[in-house]
Amino acid sequence: MTLPDPEPRRLPLRRMPRSVWARQHPTWREASPSVIGGALKRALARPSGNWFVLAASSEVRTDRPFGRVVSGTELVAWRTPDGAVHAGPGACPHLGAPLCRGAVTEGNLVCRWHGLSLGPGGMPGWSPFPAHDDGVLVWVRLDGCGGEEPTEAPVVPERPRADASIAAVESLAGRCEPEDVVANRLDPWHGSWFHPYSFVGLTVTEVPQGPNPDPDRLVADVGFRVAGRWGVPVRAEFTCPEPRTVVMRIIEGRARAAWWRPTPRRWAPTATGSRAPP
Ligand code: FES
Ligand SMILES: [Fe+2]
Fold first, then answer.
1. Pocket of ligand 1 contains residue 92 by CB under 6 Å
2. What is the largest CA-CA distance in the chain?
Protein backbone atom coordinates (compact mmCIF):
# COMPACT_ATOMS: atom_id res chain seq x y z
CA MET A 1 0.00 0.00 0.00
CA THR A 2 1.34 3.45 -0.85
CA LEU A 3 0.59 6.23 1.56
CA PRO A 4 0.15 9.83 0.40
CA ASP A 5 3.15 12.16 0.42
CA PRO A 6 3.68 13.36 4.05
CA GLU A 7 5.23 16.70 3.00
CA PRO A 8 3.43 19.56 4.75
CA ARG A 9 0.78 21.43 2.83
CA ARG A 10 -1.78 23.93 4.04
CA LEU A 11 -3.92 21.10 5.44
CA PRO A 12 -2.31 17.94 6.84
CA LEU A 13 -5.28 15.69 6.02
CA ARG A 14 -4.96 13.28 3.12
CA ARG A 15 -7.32 10.72 1.70
CA MET A 16 -5.84 7.37 2.67
CA PRO A 17 -5.82 4.35 0.39
CA ARG A 18 -8.75 2.02 0.88
CA SER A 19 -7.78 -0.92 3.06
CA VAL A 20 -9.44 -4.18 4.03
CA TRP A 21 -8.14 -5.56 7.31
CA ALA A 22 -7.76 -9.20 6.22
CA ARG A 23 -6.12 -8.22 2.93
CA GLN A 24 -3.32 -6.16 4.39
CA HIS A 25 0.24 -7.22 3.83
CA PRO A 26 1.07 -9.63 6.69
CA THR A 27 3.88 -8.23 8.81
CA TRP A 28 4.78 -11.26 10.91
CA ARG A 29 7.85 -12.06 8.81
CA GLU A 30 9.31 -8.58 9.29
CA ALA A 31 8.36 -8.39 12.97
CA SER A 32 11.38 -10.47 13.79
CA PRO A 33 11.66 -11.62 17.42
CA SER A 34 15.43 -11.16 17.19
CA VAL A 35 15.14 -7.52 16.01
CA ILE A 36 12.56 -6.65 18.68
CA GLY A 37 14.37 -8.69 21.35
CA GLY A 38 17.72 -7.12 20.47
CA ALA A 39 16.29 -3.59 20.67
CA LEU A 40 14.69 -4.45 24.03
CA LYS A 41 17.90 -5.92 25.39
CA ARG A 42 19.89 -2.82 24.44
CA ALA A 43 17.21 -0.58 25.95
CA LEU A 44 17.21 -2.49 29.23
CA ALA A 45 21.00 -2.27 29.41
CA ARG A 46 21.03 1.56 29.27
CA PRO A 47 21.47 3.37 32.57
CA SER A 48 18.47 4.95 34.25
CA GLY A 49 20.21 6.21 37.38
CA ASN A 50 17.33 4.49 39.26
CA TRP A 51 14.89 7.22 38.24
CA PHE A 52 11.22 6.32 37.76
CA VAL A 53 8.38 8.52 36.59
CA LEU A 54 6.03 9.28 39.44
CA ALA A 55 3.43 11.70 38.08
CA ALA A 56 2.63 14.53 35.75
CA SER A 57 4.19 17.76 37.03
CA SER A 58 0.71 19.24 37.35
CA GLU A 59 -0.42 16.40 39.63
CA VAL A 60 2.04 17.28 42.40
CA ARG A 61 0.82 20.40 44.17
CA THR A 62 1.44 22.69 47.12
CA ASP A 63 -2.08 22.31 48.53
CA ARG A 64 -2.48 18.54 48.79
CA PRO A 65 -0.41 15.36 48.75
CA PHE A 66 -0.24 12.99 45.80
CA GLY A 67 0.05 9.21 46.21
CA ARG A 68 1.02 6.41 43.87
CA VAL A 69 2.71 3.02 43.90
CA VAL A 70 5.81 2.87 41.70
CA SER A 71 7.59 -0.41 41.14
CA GLY A 72 5.92 -1.84 44.24
CA THR A 73 6.87 1.14 46.44
CA GLU A 74 4.09 3.20 48.00
CA LEU A 75 4.96 6.88 47.60
CA VAL A 76 3.69 10.29 48.51
CA ALA A 77 4.70 13.56 46.85
CA TRP A 78 4.01 17.23 47.44
CA ARG A 79 5.48 20.67 46.80
CA THR A 80 6.80 23.26 49.21
CA PRO A 81 5.71 26.90 48.70
CA ASP A 82 8.87 27.57 46.64
CA GLY A 83 7.56 25.06 44.06
CA ALA A 84 10.17 22.40 44.83
CA VAL A 85 8.90 18.85 44.53
CA HIS A 86 9.41 16.28 47.30
CA ALA A 87 8.65 12.58 47.55
CA GLY A 88 8.85 10.01 50.30
CA PRO A 89 7.47 6.70 51.52
CA GLY A 90 3.69 6.68 51.37
CA ALA A 91 3.11 5.21 54.86
CA CYS A 92 3.27 7.39 57.95
CA PRO A 93 6.20 6.42 60.22
CA HIS A 94 3.89 6.54 63.26
CA LEU A 95 1.20 3.91 62.57
CA GLY A 96 1.31 3.53 58.82
CA ALA A 97 -1.52 5.83 57.69
CA PRO A 98 -1.55 6.64 53.97
CA LEU A 99 0.11 10.03 53.82
CA CYS A 100 -1.56 10.79 50.49
CA ARG A 101 -4.81 11.10 52.49
CA GLY A 102 -3.28 13.76 54.72
CA ALA A 103 -2.78 17.44 54.02
CA VAL A 104 -0.03 19.85 53.02
CA THR A 105 0.33 22.81 55.34
CA GLU A 106 3.07 25.43 54.98
CA GLY A 107 5.19 23.03 52.98
CA ASN A 108 4.86 20.14 55.40
CA LEU A 109 2.97 16.92 55.01
CA VAL A 110 0.51 16.44 57.86
CA CYS A 111 -0.81 12.97 58.63
CA ARG A 112 -4.57 12.63 58.78
CA TRP A 113 -4.57 10.18 61.67
CA HIS A 114 -2.65 11.90 64.48
CA GLY A 115 -1.24 15.08 62.95
CA LEU A 116 2.42 14.11 62.58
CA SER A 117 4.09 16.81 60.45
CA LEU A 118 6.77 15.72 58.01
CA GLY A 119 9.04 18.20 56.25
CA PRO A 120 11.27 17.75 53.21
CA GLY A 121 14.12 16.81 55.58
CA GLY A 122 12.21 13.78 56.85
CA MET A 123 12.66 12.32 60.32
CA PRO A 124 14.10 9.14 61.83
CA GLY A 125 12.27 6.24 60.23
CA TRP A 126 11.00 8.29 57.32
CA SER A 127 13.52 9.43 54.70
CA PRO A 128 12.44 11.29 51.56
CA PHE A 129 13.58 10.05 48.16
CA PRO A 130 15.33 12.28 45.61
CA ALA A 131 12.73 13.84 43.31
CA HIS A 132 13.06 15.73 40.05
CA ASP A 133 10.58 17.84 38.10
CA ASP A 134 11.47 18.09 34.41
CA GLY A 135 8.57 20.45 33.67
CA VAL A 136 6.28 17.73 32.30
CA LEU A 137 6.90 14.78 34.57
CA VAL A 138 7.93 14.33 38.19
CA TRP A 139 10.50 11.59 38.74
CA VAL A 140 11.56 9.80 41.87
CA ARG A 141 14.84 7.99 42.46
CA LEU A 142 14.36 4.57 44.01
CA ASP A 143 17.81 3.12 44.51
CA GLY A 144 16.41 0.01 46.18
CA CYS A 145 14.31 -0.82 43.12
CA GLY A 146 16.66 0.27 40.37
CA GLY A 147 19.82 -1.33 41.73
CA GLU A 148 21.98 0.75 39.37
CA GLU A 149 24.54 3.46 40.00
CA PRO A 150 22.41 6.46 41.11
CA THR A 151 22.61 9.66 39.08
CA GLU A 152 21.83 13.26 39.93
CA ALA A 153 19.01 13.52 37.41
CA PRO A 154 16.95 11.24 35.16
CA VAL A 155 17.60 10.68 31.46
CA VAL A 156 15.10 13.04 29.87
CA PRO A 157 14.94 12.90 26.08
CA GLU A 158 15.08 16.04 24.01
CA ARG A 159 11.63 17.54 23.70
CA PRO A 160 9.98 20.11 21.47
CA ARG A 161 10.28 23.71 22.70
CA ALA A 162 7.88 24.22 25.59
CA ASP A 163 6.56 27.49 24.13
CA ALA A 164 5.75 25.82 20.81
CA SER A 165 4.22 22.59 22.00
CA ILE A 166 1.47 21.13 24.13
CA ALA A 167 2.30 18.72 26.95
CA ALA A 168 -0.22 16.02 27.80
CA VAL A 169 0.29 13.21 30.30
CA GLU A 170 -2.02 10.26 30.56
CA SER A 171 -1.90 7.73 33.40
CA LEU A 172 -3.31 4.25 32.99
CA ALA A 173 -3.54 1.47 35.54
CA GLY A 174 -2.20 -1.85 34.39
CA ARG A 175 -0.69 -5.07 35.66
CA CYS A 176 2.25 -6.08 33.57
CA GLU A 177 5.96 -6.58 33.34
CA PRO A 178 7.49 -3.23 32.36
CA GLU A 179 9.76 -4.76 29.73
CA ASP A 180 6.70 -6.23 28.00
CA VAL A 181 5.38 -2.69 27.55
CA VAL A 182 8.69 -1.55 26.10
CA ALA A 183 8.88 -4.63 23.84
CA ASN A 184 5.38 -3.88 22.59
CA ARG A 185 6.47 -0.36 21.70
CA LEU A 186 9.43 -1.75 19.83
CA ASP A 187 7.02 -3.70 17.62
CA PRO A 188 5.51 -1.10 15.30
CA TRP A 189 4.58 -3.88 12.85
CA HIS A 190 1.42 -4.67 14.78
CA GLY A 191 0.04 -1.15 14.24
CA SER A 192 -2.24 -1.56 11.21
CA TRP A 193 -3.22 -5.10 12.22
CA PHE A 194 -4.02 -4.59 15.87
CA HIS A 195 -5.15 -0.95 15.71
CA PRO A 196 -6.76 -0.62 12.27
CA TYR A 197 -9.09 2.07 13.64
CA SER A 198 -6.05 4.31 14.23
CA PHE A 199 -3.39 3.33 11.72
CA VAL A 200 -3.34 2.56 8.06
CA GLY A 201 -0.63 1.28 5.75
CA LEU A 202 2.08 0.97 8.39
CA THR A 203 5.41 0.04 6.85
CA VAL A 204 8.65 -0.22 8.81
CA THR A 205 11.36 1.37 6.68
CA GLU A 206 14.38 1.11 8.97
CA VAL A 207 15.44 -1.35 11.66
CA PRO A 208 18.60 -1.33 13.80
CA GLN A 209 21.35 -3.38 12.20
CA GLY A 210 23.85 -5.59 13.99
CA PRO A 211 24.66 -5.99 17.68
CA ASN A 212 25.69 -2.36 18.20
CA PRO A 213 23.60 -0.34 15.76
CA ASP A 214 24.06 3.35 15.14
CA PRO A 215 21.52 4.83 14.95
CA ASP A 216 19.65 2.46 17.22
CA ARG A 217 16.17 3.23 15.99
CA LEU A 218 13.10 1.90 14.20
CA VAL A 219 11.45 4.05 11.55
CA ALA A 220 7.91 3.53 10.24
CA ASP A 221 5.69 5.22 7.68
CA VAL A 222 2.10 5.26 8.82
CA GLY A 223 -1.17 7.04 8.27
CA PHE A 224 -2.91 8.23 11.44
CA ARG A 225 -6.61 7.88 10.81
CA VAL A 226 -8.70 10.92 11.71
CA ALA A 227 -12.13 10.13 10.26
CA GLY A 228 -13.11 7.50 7.74
CA ARG A 229 -10.48 7.46 5.02
CA TRP A 230 -9.08 10.84 6.04
CA GLY A 231 -5.84 10.79 7.95
CA VAL A 232 -2.36 12.26 8.37
CA PRO A 233 0.61 10.42 6.86
CA VAL A 234 3.81 10.63 8.89
CA ARG A 235 7.22 9.06 9.26
CA ALA A 236 7.84 8.10 12.89
CA GLU A 237 11.09 7.21 14.63
CA PHE A 238 11.22 5.04 17.77
CA THR A 239 14.18 5.14 20.16
CA CYS A 240 14.88 4.09 23.75
CA PRO A 241 17.10 6.55 25.67
CA GLU A 242 16.82 4.55 28.90
CA PRO A 243 15.25 1.26 30.03
CA ARG A 244 11.76 2.58 30.67
CA THR A 245 11.31 5.17 27.96
CA VAL A 246 10.33 4.76 24.33
CA VAL A 247 10.39 7.99 22.33
CA MET A 248 8.34 8.38 19.18
CA ARG A 249 9.30 11.35 17.04
CA ILE A 250 7.51 12.42 13.92
CA ILE A 251 10.43 13.07 11.63
CA GLU A 252 8.42 13.80 8.47
CA GLY A 253 4.87 14.95 8.14
CA ARG A 254 2.65 17.53 9.66
CA ALA A 255 2.45 16.44 13.28
CA ARG A 256 5.45 17.45 15.35
CA ALA A 257 7.48 15.51 17.83
CA ALA A 258 5.58 13.36 20.25
CA TRP A 259 7.02 11.20 22.92
CA TRP A 260 5.92 8.34 24.99
CA ARG A 261 7.03 6.73 28.21
CA PRO A 262 5.92 3.56 29.86
CA THR A 263 6.79 3.36 33.52
CA PRO A 264 7.13 0.13 35.43
CA ARG A 265 4.49 -0.21 38.01
CA ARG A 266 2.69 -3.30 39.01
CA TRP A 267 -0.84 -2.67 40.15
CA ALA A 268 -0.31 1.00 39.61
CA PRO A 269 -0.93 3.69 37.02
CA THR A 270 1.42 4.25 34.14
CA ALA A 271 2.32 7.76 33.14
CA THR A 272 2.71 8.49 29.48
CA GLY A 273 3.48 11.62 27.61
CA SER A 274 1.61 12.72 24.52
CA ARG A 275 0.04 10.34 22.07
CA ALA A 276 0.67 6.61 22.13
CA PRO A 277 2.43 5.29 19.05
CA PRO A 278 1.34 2.16 17.22
S1 FES B 1 -0.41 7.31 61.72
FE2 FES B 1 0.35 9.21 61.12
S3 FES B 1 0.41 10.39 62.85
FE4 FES B 1 -0.33 8.48 63.52
FE1 LIG C 1 -0.37 -1.38 20.06
1. yes
2. 66
Tell me the domains of the chain and their CATH numbers.
14-46+158-273 (3.30.530), 51-146 (2.102.10.10)
Ligand nearest the Cα atom of residue 90: 1
Ligand nearest the Cα of residue 111 is 1
Burial class (CB in 10 A: 0-12, 13-18, 19+), 104: buried
pLDDT in tens, 45-85: 999 999 999 999 999 999 999 999 999 999 999 999 999 99
d(CA 216, CA 278): 18
Mark residue 136 as left, alpha or beta (left: phi above 0; alpha: psi -120 to 50; beta: remaining): alpha
Is 126 close to ligand 1, i.e. is its CB under 6 Å away? no
What sign results for the dihedral spanned by CA atoms 87, 89, 90, 93?
A: negative
For residue 113, the CA-to-ligand 1 centroid distance in Å is: 5
pTM of the model: 0.86
DSSP letter at 277 equals: -
